[in-house]
């Protein structure tokens, strides 16, 4: 993740890179001990085949 990557993109529908070998995970988990990682805005890169009980998805009902 690079904070300036999407700076020139449409904020409503930014386009990702054409290729790459990493994925972004967001937010924190109950297992994180580092307080800075608990923020919803936290980003971290991981290989696409990464899995862990602390990585998942959130369902939102408007």
Give an overview of the whole structure.
The chain has a two-stranded antiparallel ribbon with strand order 1-2. The model has no long low-confidence stretch (mean pLDDT 79). It contains no helices and two strands. By secondary structure, the chain is mainly beta.
Question: What does the radius of gyration come to?
Answer: 13 Å
The biggest beta sheet is recorded as: 2 strands, antiparallel
**Unreliable parts:** none
Name the overall outline: globular
Let me know the average pLDDT: 79
How many angstroms separate the termini?
Answer: 28 Å
Domains, number: 1
SSE run: EE
Total helices: the number is 0
- Label the structural class: mainly beta
Strand content: 5-15%
Range of helix content = under 10%
Give the spatial strand order of the biggest sheet.
Answer: 1-2
The count of strands amounts to 2
Pick out its properties.
two-stranded antiparallel ribbon, 2 strands, globular, mainly beta, single chain
Question: Secondary-structure map with pairings?
Answer:
Elements: E1 23-26, E2 43-46
Antiparallel strand pairs: 1-2
Short account of what is shown:
By secondary structure, this protein is an all-beta fold.
């Amino acid at each position: 993740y690079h904070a300036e990557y999407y700076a020139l993109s449409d904020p409503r529908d930014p386009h990702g890179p054409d290729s790459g070998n990493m994925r972004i995970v967001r937010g924190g988990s109950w297992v994180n001990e580092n307080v800075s990682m608990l923020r919803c805005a936290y980003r971290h890169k991981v290989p696409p085949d990464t899995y862990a009980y602390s990585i998942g998805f959130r369902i939102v009902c408007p």
